Amino acid sequence: MDPDELLKMLDLSAAPARPPDDPIPTTPPAPPAQDEEASSTALHLDEWGLRRGRDLIVENERLKKINTDEFAAADFFGVAFEPDPQLEPRCREVRRHAFLTQMLETPDYHSLHAATQLDDTAAAIAAIHFAEQFAQLKKDDPKEKDDPKDKPEKGVNTATAAANELAREMATLRAVGRAVAEAGKEVSELHEATTALGMGPGNPGSNDPRAIAALYKRVRGDSALRKICDLAGRFRRVAQSKQRMKSTHGLDDVVGVEPGGDIGRLLPIELAKLVVPELELDTLRRIAERQALCREHHSTEPVGKGPIIVSVDESGSMQGQKAHTAKGLALALAWIARSQKRWCGLLAYSGDSGERLLALPPGRWDEAALCNWLTQFIGHGSELDIPVREMPDYYRRLGAPHGITDLVFITDAKCKLDSATQTRFLTWKQSAQARLISLVIDNSPGDLAAISDEVHSVRSLDPTDDAVGKVLSL
User: Fold this and answer.
1) Which residues have CB under 8 Å from 348's CB, separation 6+?
2) Is pTM beyond 0.85 here?
C-alpha cells in the first residue's frame, strides 16, 4: 500500500503540526514511593506518648518557634520520660533517628534520664532542649540546605564522602552533648526549686505536674526567688549531712556484728556452742569477758517533737544578700521540720512596722503563700528588730502546737532589752518549752545573749560555718 494512503486511513494528517521549537512532551515523574515500613517516630511509642507530643506543641511557644512537629516532640519527650526508651528499626526522618541513637549511647544522658523518667515536668523541660538543639543541628547541616539530586554523582571521592559522614556524626554528638548539658542544668534547677518549696519527690503535691510547672515558672520569672531556692539547696545539703550524724542506738535495725556479752544479742552460732560440752566453758568465758559475737543494732530517732519557728529580720539593713541568705536558711529549717514530721512557722519582722506570719504544717504547704512570704520585704525597722515582746502573741496566732519548741532568730541588729522585757520573754520561753538559738550577722548580740540558749555572731550566713551547722543540726 502506498504510504500516503496509509496516512489518510489513520487520519494522522489531520492532526495539527507541532511547532519545531515545542519540546517533546514527557510524562511527569511519579513522586517517590513513601517507605511504608518506616515509622513516623524514632522511638517505639504508644498512643499516650503520641498525644503527649501533640500537647507539648500546643503548650509550648518555644517548640512552635522552631517548627517542631508532633512526632519529633513525642520522640524528645519519650526519650526523657519513658523508663526504657526503645528505638524503632527505621524512621522516616533519618537525622532524628541518628540524633536519638547517639543520645541513648551517651553516659551523660543516662545520668539525666534518672532525674527525668516518669517525671512529666522534668521530661517536658528536657524535650524542649532536645528539640532546640536538633533544630539547630539541622540548620547548620549543609546536606539539609542543598538537594543532593542537584549534584552529580559521578566522580565522587570516597574519602571525601567518608570525611563528610564523620563530620556529620561528630556534629550530631556535639549537639547531643549540648542538649543533655542544658537540659540537665534546668532540670536540676527545677528539682532544687520544688524541693525547697515543699513539692519534692515523696511530698504531697509532687504528683501534680501542672502545679509543679506553675511553681517552677514563678521561680524562673523571679530572680530573688530563684536565688533563695538555690541558697536553700546549699543549706539543705549541709542539713542532710548533719541530720545523718544524729543517731541513737536501739533495736530497730541490725547493721553488723560486734563483740559483747549481752545474752539477748548473741548470734545463733554462739548460742549453739553453749550446748556443746567441749565449747561451753570457753563460750561462757567469752561472754563474761564481753568477747562473744553479738548483733549490732542501730536506729534513728527525731530529737524534737514540737514546732520549729524561724524569725527573719527584715529591717532595711538586711535588704539584698543578707535577706536572701536568711530566707534560704529558713527554708532549709522548714525542710528539717518536715523531715522530722514537725510543724514549722516562718516569721518576718521589722521593728514596730509590721510582720508576716506563715504556718507550714507537716502536710502539703501552701506554695503560693510561701513564695509570697519569700519575695516580700518590709524594709523598715527600729532598735529592736527581733520579736521579743511580740513572740508569745505570734506563737498563739501561728497556731503552733505544744511541745519542745526550737526557736531561731536571724538578725543583724545589736539588741537592747530592758530587764522587764527579758523577764517576760524568759517566763514565756519556759512555759512554751522553747529553746532559742540566735544568729547575729556582722554585729555583737548585745542583750540577746541574756535570753538565748545559744547565740552566735557570724560574718555571714555561710553554709560551711560551724554556727550555721549547729543550727542545721536541730
Assistant:
1) 311, 312, 314, 355, 356, 373, 376, 377, 378
2) no
